[in-house]
UniProtKB/TrEMBL annotation:
Official protein name in the record: Pectin acetylesterase
Homology family: Belongs to the pectinacetylesterase family.
Keywords, ordered alphabetically: Cell wall, Cell wall biogenesis/degradation, Hydrolase, Membrane, Secreted, Transmembrane, Transmembrane helix
Segments forming a coiled coil: none
Subcellular location: Secreted, Cell wall
Name of the gene encoding the protein in the UniProt record: LOC108809508
Domain of life of the organism encoding this protein: Eukaryota
Length: 427
């Protein structure tokens, strides 16, 4: 539970430069995403896909709509075909597969799912035809030292329920919405298995945000469908959503999850041991089922996860007088009382991962940054200036753990101790 900090002049100089970079990138990001961050039904990882300055043509990977999904009736919310982007492995990575599940929050009502069905998070009609593979998906060894030559797949998220909705829950009236996330997951898995994944020696299921939650939900399924002798593990990035009340004391996220689970019939897709004992929507919180997962799991999560702070802890509905407005956009603007609340959020995370932490096979990288979904962005995943704990990048940490080079259970000290942080600034 420690992180080395040094206050050498050099580091402060670096930090100053980095602040400038953060501020300018933050401004750029804000243009694309401001509207997306305003309520619980939105989420976004806009940084990577839309920032032209870090995209080279070789990173662009074409979309493929799934044939297997067509055969099986596994559709996006609007009835369109789901899809994925596939970059073939080579050399020592040709029998290794890394699957990334895209994130983007959830929809919890007919109205919000209908609205979503006319966006790229609910319909392949709006998918980008190609996306940039960065961070853990990158083919550049300097950016992605351990997995650059693996087969890498990004599965697009278009069902609104972490790849776990069920057709039984579909509404049988004129409302044409498809709740088939579980079928999408199974169909695309089948398709990848037939493309060579059934012969794999190594496998990682990962995902960010709502996709990071999906990676936990489907972790054992993934393990069970790869060869018995393959080394298979799961890495959840920003997917550890906490069951905590908001600053008003209202169970905002809990009610939201209850609605998602009920609307899309998730109870059959969630951990069955948990569902047998608890109200099913509780089982959508990783703290309730992460210890039941048989496959080794690694958690990458910011202790001051900005998405959770903006949507779970201080949703707009709990900040009517706007006293949190500045702090929600930039952690450096939080006053002492607000910081006390944010440290409390971090403590809840520490409590929630307590039992998981004791598991020998598990790994973690819990940084004290104002961040979320850190594996697809080079400035967070792996670069000379990216987020570090004990001088290790997220890429090095995940690699050390996956290949059993050494155990990795890194937990940062509370904010603002870490000088190697990539803090988001939305102002
Ligand atoms: C990273 O830090 C180095 C050393 O301070 C600096 O020269 C470089 O410009 C920085 N790179 C980025 C992308 O900020
Ligand atoms: C269909 O049923 C759902 C749930 O009962 C309801 O919310 C929706 O308004 C109905 N749609 C139409 C077009 O009747
Ligand atoms: C941190 O790690 C880098 C290599 O990744 C190394 O060059 C550097 O010396 C390390 N710094 C400290 C303070 O250990």
């Amino acid at each position: 539970m420690a992180i080395s900090t040094s206050s050498s002049l050099l580091r402060y100089r670096k930090l100053a430069k980095r602040d400038w970079l953060v501020a300018s990138l933050g401004l750029l990001l804000t243009v694309f995403s401001l509207s997306l961050f305003l309520d619980l039904t939105s989420d976004s990882v806009p940084f990577v896909d839309h920032n032209p300055t870090i995209t080279s043509p070789s990173d662009l990977v074409k979309l493929k709509l799934s044939n297997k999904a067509k055969e099986r009736g596994a559709f996006c919310l609007d009835g369109s075909l789901p899809g994925y982007h596939f970059s073939k492995g080579s050399g020592s990575g040709s029998k290794s597969w890394l699957i990334h599940l895209e994130g983007g929050s959830w929809c919890d009502t007919i109205a919000s799912c209908s609205a979503r069905a006319i966006t790229r998070l609910g319909s392949s009609n709006y998918f980008e035809r190609e996306v940039s593979f960065q961070g853990v998906l990158s083919s550049d060894p300097s950016q992605n030292p351990d997995f650059f030559n693996w087969n890498r797949v990004k599965i697009r998220y278009c069902d609104g329920a972490s790849f776990s909705g069920r057709p039984e829950a579909e509404v049988k009236n004129e409302t044409r919405l498809f709740f088939r996330g579980q079928l999408i997951w199974e169909a695309i898995m089948d398709e990848l298995l037939s493309m060579g994944m059934s012969d794999s020696k190594q496998g990682i299921l990962t995902g960010s945000s709502a996709g990071g939650l999906a990676a936990l939900i489907h972790c054992d399924y993934f393990r069970d469908h790869l060869p018995k002798d393959a080394s298979v593990k799961c890495v959840s990035d920003g997917g550890f959503f906490l069951n905590v009340p908001d600053v008003f004391g209202k169970p905002t996220v809990r009610s939201f999850y209850r609605d998602v689970v009920k609307l899309q019939g998730l109870d059959k897709s969630l951990d069955q041991k948990c569902v047998a004992r608890k109200e099913p929507s509780k089982c959508m919180f990783p703290q309730e089922f992460v210890s039941n997962i048989r496959t080794p799991v690694f958690l990458v999560n910011a202790a001051y996860d900005y998405w959770q702070i903006q949507h779970v802890l201080v949703p707009a509905s709990a900040d009517l007088d706007k006293s949190w407005a500045k702090c929600r956009l930039n952690i450096k603007e939080c006053d002492a009382e607000q910081m006390r609340v944010l440290h409390g959020f971090r403590s809840s995370l520490m409590d929630a991962i307590g039992k998981f932490h004791q598991n020998k096979a598990s790994g973690m990288f819990i940084d004290s940054c104002y961040s979320h979904s850190q594996m697809l962005k080079p400035v967070m995943w792996h670069s000379p200036n990216s987020t570090r704990i004990q001088n290790k990048t997220i890429a090095e940490s995940v690699g050390d753990w996956y290949f059993n080079r050494k155990p990795v259970k890194l937990i940062d000290r509370p904010y603002p101790c870490n000088l190697y942080c990539y803090n988001m600034n939305f102002t």
